[in-house]
Structures are given as C-alpha cells and as structure tokens.
Amino acid sequence: MSEVDDATADAVGKLTEALEFVERARGHLYAFHQLMGRADLLAGEACDQLRDNGNDAIAERLETDLVGRNVLYGRWTFQVVEEFDDTYWSVFREHEQRVRDELLAGERHVHEARMKERRRTHGRKGHEAGP
C-alpha cells in the first residue's frame, strides 16, 4: 500500500469518488440514448400502423415533425454521448489517472484499502485482507 499520508490519500479518494459519479452519470446518459432511440423507433412503428389504418395525414404529421427529430439542437443522442465522452468524461478520467500516478504511484482505492484495514476484524473469516 502506498506510503502517502492519509490526507493526500483522502483527497485522491475524493477525486476518484467524483469520477465514480461521472461514470454513473455517463451510464444514465447511455440509458437516455437507448431510451430515446427506442422511443423514436416506436413512434415510427406507430406512424406505420396509423397509415395502415387510413390515418395518413396524422402519420405524415408525426413522421415529418417528430420521428428522427434532434433531441438537442443539431444532435441526436449518439452525438450527445460522443461529445460528453470526448469533452468531459475522457478528460476527467485522464486527470484522475494522472493524480493517482503522481501521488499514489498509480495505486487505486488507497483510501478504501486503508479504511478496510481499519474496519476489518483481523483473523476472522470473511475479514481477510485480500483474496
């Protein structure tokens, strides 16, 4: 385990925790991407069914204005995901990695490892230090 002081390990741990929240947000963004894509496909299928049932004008209106519409100005959700990945997520990951490399010799979860060592019951089954 790294020889860094606890305050530094805690600070790096806080940065890593922040990255974990960014990772969760990214997962939600991908869920949004998939949900919106499915919604668009279903709306298209609804248009087909409306047209099959003689509701051509309604189907045309929906297809023209709703199906394939951008969710943000000029962007479908895949473009939102790509922009997030390229301009924020990847930058955050690079900074977190660099800080760990500089301060913890690249070790991950030093704060948590120290917490585990303090909280576990030494010698007790299920409380082993490692696998």
Concise structural overview:
The chain is mainly α. It has helices at residues 6-52, 56-65, 77-104, 110-119. Helices cover 73% and strands 0% of the residues.
How does this structure look, described?
- The protein is mainly α and 131 residues long.
- It has a domain at 6-37 and 73-117.
- 73% of the residues lie in helices and 0% in strands.
- The chain contains four helices and no strands.
- It is elongated, with a radius of gyration of 24 Å.
- 6% of the residues are buried.
- The model has no long low-confidence stretch (mean pLDDT 96).
Keywords:
131 residues; mainly alpha; 4 helices
For the CA atoms, what is the radius of gyration?
Answer: 24 Å
Q: Roughly how many Å apart are the termini?
A: 15 Å
Please report which band the strand proportion falls in: under 5%, 5-15%, 15-25%, 25-35%, 35-45% or over 45%: under 5%
Biggest sheet overview: none
Beta strand count: 0
Helix content: over 70%
- Mean pLDDT over all positions: 96
Number of helices: 4
Low-pLDDT regions:
none
Write the layout of secondary structure elements.
Elements: H1 6-52, H2 56-65, H3 77-104, H4 110-119
Helix pairs in contact: 1-2, 1-3
